[in-house]
Amino acid sequence: MAGKIIIVGLGPGNYFDMTARAKSAIESAEVIAGYKTYVNLIPELVAGKKIIATAMMQETLRAELAISEAQKNLSVAVISSGDAGIYGMAGLVIEKILDLPENLQPEFEVVAGISAVNSAAAILGAPLMHDFAVISLSDLLTDWQLIKKRVKCAAEGDFVIALYNPKSKKRVTQIEEVQQILLKIKNPQTPVGIVTNAGRAGQIKIISTLEKFTQEEINMFSLILIGNSKTFVKNNFMITPRGYEIKQGVQ
Amino acid sequence: MAGKIIIVGLGPGNYFDMTARAKSAIESAEVIAGYKTYVNLIPELVAGKKIIATAMMQETLRAELAISEAQKNLSVAVISSGDAGIYGMAGLVIEKILDLPENLQPEFEVVAGISAVNSAAAILGAPLMHDFAVISLSDLLTDWQLIKKRVKCAAEGDFVIALYNPKSKKRVTQIEEVQQILLKIKNPQTPVGIVTNAGRAGQIKIISTLEKFTQEEINMFSLILIGNSKTFVKNNFMITPRGYEIKQGVQ
């Protein structure tokens, strides 16, 4: 008999921004699997439990270890920061489970969380009042040409654009390429918000413009939000109007 | 002296999927402002408080009433379902506040919540493991031509596409127009997930295809997720692989 795996989104990583469902799922689990930086964000919740804390990039191993624990009829929580369903662990764990013969498949459930795009938006003001596109600049598993194409399509559709993984120690030029693609289509004065360590110690909020934002500090803990053609900045808050006011004839 | 307004995302509307920050903000507020259907979702939290419950479409009035309560030095929680920062009340309230002379501006804060796209994804499996675009089909405040253009751009970029407000009693043909636009670009067998009343009483999950999904029950409480070219369905779960596996040469 196989146990159950709950794939849980922690949100930004502080208890206050976690849902009651996420907290309860972690509390009731016998085994916790997660990237060690995230496990370390919730020491009180995981105390006394068996911990499978693997390094970054070891997602596949982590998913397999979690499943093998559940197959011992244990309850397992696999944790992701943000929303486990947005660039998180949900996909990999579910794929691995459904690849197994049916009698070896643990039950599973995904518990949504506050993703970085939600947290960053709340900190910046109200940039997501209209349609938006979410793009990860990590090219580890995605062809860079496709990522660039998506940036171009998102700009042509005048979406607000959220960039996950904009920069890492080894990957520093992509954000400038993205900026160049956007500058061909969008106004250089388009507001750009950068939130680093949203909802965690060391949170930084910067509001800049499309023309200048790459001069700011951006790292792997940053989320970047690029406005649409109507987004404006007032008193250091970034706001996208909820509509284009066509009914009032303002357009 | 002006009080404080907290614009709070409830998540789907059950206590279990609310963050501790949202719950605490509502508990500590003296006045609650919100669309009455959402106020009614949380009777225990709002009991004994002054309630400003306006009808749908009265967002501007609701924002103004909330601000005038805060100007009496009361603490006010303006509630939205989902994430107040995603098609919610955050933008309108902040705009109205920042339009006031500085000495009449209440303090404000946005508390993020689980939006419909997060909830629906968790119910469907793991459809948001890769880049996605979020589009509202409501043409009350947005020109329908722009909405159609965004649908086309999102399809050309092979984004997973989340559709908010796909259909209402008066607005029934748009979803079929969207389907036709997508069928010109995407495979007719592309998986489509429909979640209605996510996380609430009467929750329904349907997995269909691009070719057929408009035959299913879709209403104003539905969120639709349309897969990218790699999204697949297995055991009635919808999964988008997290990458295109280029590093393994599978592509």
Short note summarizing the structure:
2 copies of one chain form a homodimer. The first copy, chain A, is of the alpha/beta class and 251 residues long.
Q: Spell the H/E element sequence of chain A.
A: EHEHHEHEHEHEEHEHEEEEE
The counted number of beta strands of chain A is 13
Structural class by helix and strand composition of chain A: alpha/beta
The largest inter-chain interface, given as chain pair and residues per side, is: A-B, 74 and 74 residues
Oligomeric state: homodimer
- Count of runs of 4 or more consecutive helical residues of chain A: 8
Biggest beta-sheet profile of chain A:
5 strands, parallel
Helical coverage of chain A, percent range: 25-40%
Chain-averaged pLDDT of chain A: 93
Q: Round the Cα radius of gyration of chain A to an integer and report it.
A: 20 Å
Please mark out the parts of chain A with pLDDT under 50 across 5 or more consecutive residues, or reply none.
246-251
